[in-house]
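re: ur question from yesterday

yeah so i grabbed the chain u mentioned. its 304 aa long if i counted rite. heres the sequnce exactly as i have it in my notes:
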Amino acid sequence: MNATKPPVPVPLLMLAGIVAISFSAIFIKWSAAPASVQGMYRLLFTSLLMLPFARPYSGAAFALRRKDWLLLGASGVLLALHFLLWMGSLKYTSVASSTMIMALEPLFIMLGAYILYKDRSTRAAILGLAIAIFGVVCIGWGDIGLSSDNLKGDLLSVGGTVAVAGHLLIGQKLVARMPSYLYSLIVFISAAVVFAVYNLLAGISFVNYPPREWGIFILLAVVPTVFGHILFNWLLQFTSATTVSMNILGEPVGASILAFLLLGEELTGLQWTGGLLVMGGLAVYLLSGRKKAVKVHESLQSAS
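ran it thru and got these structure tokens back, copy pasting raw so excuse formatting
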């Protein structure tokens, strides 16, 4: 993380990112293409959008060490695995249930940050996280485990959550010494290549999709990826991976509301209450977690 502040307050940028990523599950539900194809084109189109602006970072790319390239590759593999599992989960379970499980990501982040960086959270931060996690459980309570398909979707979402937690932890270490834009571009290209190899080996078509599907692929690249994931990667310069991950807890709220409006997925009073609890937990965490960012930065520097 850098000592400087972003031009726009971090909470506002977090909110914009949450709204953007909330559309991800909606676009995925609208698509009939395999999850691996959606993920491949989502990352490929995002990389193509980023490439024209990558020239200023060429020097930083040549300065990367072998260890950095290995970590970048690992981060790309984990990102591809995250998209493959989580996007696949939406074929079997509801938006509320899948995004609820994804919101458990901070638990894995906190555990990983403690193991790798000796990063301890404050009691107030843990309280905020507990409130938000309880709210997320309320959101998906009515859907989880109702059938074997739901259970399969739940397990896929858990696997995707573990993968993205590892991706974020690696990202936090790398952006401490390289531009976040370069990090995002290399990781997205790496993940797209992983998807391409997977689709090739699985015999999945690369091109036989109607125009509507191509439109969805582009929307997935522009809305939740550029204005969601890239924004969150950029924010790793100014705040910790745990804080970034915590704010993604807002996704189940936004995604569930959009699923109700656009997909007709009903929400119960318990789920609406859960949404309020999530936002309350976010507020508690944000108010208590700012001082911790400096300590995480120091740990990252000593681990480099």
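noticed a couple things. Confidence is low (pLDDT under 50) at residues 293-304. also Residues 22-303 form one domain.
anyway ttyl
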